[in-house]
What we know:
This protein is mainly β. The chain contains 1 helix and 6 strands, in the order βββαβββ. The radius of gyration is 13 Å and the shape is globular.
Amino acid sequence: MPTLYFVQGFRAKGRKLEPDQPQAARSAEAAIAAAERIAPSRAGVWAYSADVDVEADTYDEPKVLFKAGTLPPGLAE
Length: 77
């Protein structure tokens, strides 16, 4: 199964967190570097990977590679 890597930031909108569109990365290292780069400008950010079953078009549970700041409850635990 191929592994995909993503980075997603969250912006504070009052008391709510508004998610950015997840951005794909080429590797775990690239995802972590991108998350570290945007962390100072976001309320929260996480980098994660997910194994994909292409034939079934399903994703495994995400694996947290990096997290910083405030994230929505239940995310990145």
